[in-house]
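Note to self: keep these together.
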Amino acid sequence: SSSSSSSFSKITPSLFYGLDINAVKEAYFLLQDLNREDINNSLINASTRLSTNLKSTAHMIKSPEEIRPFIILYENPQLNDPDTHKLLLGPLLAATSALSPSSLDYIKDWFSAFNDSQFSKMVGLVQQFITLFILYNEPNSLNGSTFIVAATKVLSIFNSINEKRHVVPYIEFYNEVINDQFDYREDFTNWKYEGGFTFCHYPFILDPERKSKILQFESYTQMRRQRHEAFQQMIFRGHPTSPYLVFFFQAEDGIRDTISQIQLHQSEDLKKELKIQFVGEEGVDQGGVQKEFFQLIVRQIFDPSYGMFTHNELMLYWFNNASEEYSDFKLIGTIFGLAIYNGVILDCHFPHVLYKKIMGETPVMQDLQDVNPTLLSGFKQLLAYDGDDVEDVFGLSFQIAYEVFGENKTHDLKANGGSILVTKDNKKEYVDLYVDYLLNTSIVTQYDAFYEGFREVCNTEGFKLFRWEELELLVNGSQTLDFEALQKAAHYEGYDEDHPTIKNFWEVVHSLSLEEKKKLLAFSTGSDRAPIGGLAKLPITIVKNGPDSDRLPSAHTCFNHLLIPEYQTKEHLKDRLLAA
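Structure:
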């Protein structure tokens, strides 16, 4: 390019660091248009040599104009051919990842200048490279493969850009082959203790199922350490310390009783393996009792008579800012954390913004969508209104009114808010302050107490791997329900998959509406959602419960057992199932 050095930092549609991008594209087009194999091969060889040389000198690159060879190589259309990935794309990714952090910023600027189509295409190209390289080369260690490490690092640049631009869904950064093949236990251990490259350093590439497995592994490791320390205390110091966290549960006053028991334990005790004993009942907690315990507790927590949470027209719950039971909010946060730590899906209906707050993200106006959708609609109308008579049309001030136990109250969004009218010039400030009040300051004491209790349990490294969307999935399960996968994963007692009653059962299930299927799932398992990984990961068992009769099917939700009599006809089975 004949551009002066002053244009090196200037980005235009066709110029980047003084390089005429259109001229580069045209040159490649003309070379390809010759349709000569010898020229194509020469171009591949020259590009490979250049990439190899760039890798060895990448650490010395300091100025933006030295990035031009990288840009020229990334424009090479031959990169799109999977047959050239190992020769062309691999060395280029390796060279890119060898750049210093400051030089990588120049590359990031280049990637940021891509239009949405280019950006999406490049993300797909790097993902395709990773997948094909693993499948066709079968490296002994994914973490030790130069090309896989390099591709993951380059993908992280695109991910950081995408977090701001939202060009592609975040799930496009998951790599299925990596998630299937990497050793998550070793990777997590190296990430936590030993250093070096790990995929845990780049959690965007890991899907929720693998992150959940990592969290379970970390929880199991901590539980095992707690048991070991408890036994040592007992053997060497004579202190009889329980290796388990044991709760005795009475259904009639479950929440108060549980809160009282939590208060007796230190934070470290909460990391022990949880055991539940229902008072007056016999049985060993093998996981199912835990599930029933949390189901009952959550039901009581959200009971309106308890007064800790309010709900909106979407039946989603939010902190009751009139409640001053701050210690209870902390202990509810602890219960919430205990469920995650012990791998139990909760039937709790919080809005998305709670999970964003837990993961440290700042709420924005759109987060009102499932907190107060009516107010959000009003805000959008206010902001969209372009007239100069906002004061007359909307009649708003920087003071808001609300009701607490039948008493009318007001709150100033800023000093003397009642005397400050909302105008065309300050309406954005009004909306921002109102949103901050609703989602932050009005519930700050309640939320902070809840969060403090939650962090007493969920303050581990594994927890940091999750996005807020993945945390919500971890807590509530997935709303995507594949009943074909549920059928394939089902177990039977007294029946087998070829029994006429079972065949009729699945035919009935697949004929149900989505709402009916969700009711069946809730009836059988206690939740109308699938765990992370889908219904294929739900170990449902269908149990023979006597001969044909008018008895309704029943369920042991704590163990995902569905008990069905041997109904003789499909019609009778469907009638009894829907009635149940």
